[in-house]
Amino acid sequence: MATGSSQNYSNHVRRDPAFHFFVLPVLTITLVGAIAHAVRRPGIHSVWWAILVAAIIVLAFKCRLYALKVQDRLIRLEERLRLATVLPDPLRARIGELTLSQLIGLRFASDVELANLVSRALNEGLSGKQIKQAVQLWRPDEFRV
Known about the structure:
Blueprint: H1 17-40, H2 44-86, H3 89-92, H4 100-106, H5 111-124, H6 128-134
Helix pairs in contact: 1-2, 2-4, 4-6
């Protein structure tokens, strides 16, 4: 997500234009058309076409979700490694208590504020969203899927 301005909480959400603004609309319009055709001209071919289009939509979402799941696993690994090198010993022993959502939120925090945010996340049960909102020195993530 290379933009002219720096990344922050209000602009960090990633949209994939090819997926969100081309593939999904085209498949949605095709599904609506296939269902309308199957209703107007019922038959094995028109019904099968609607089922096929629905299957392609499910496939598109599953492919996207698989990529996001791999990304989450990489974030978890990267952040655990980062926390193990940056945090003081008392907090380092508690890295395993952080949830995936908290780790995902912490990836945007600079090293300077990381210990304080980890402590708050563990003691106050902050969600990933709350952690991102609390970040003062944003560390951009430009390599997301």
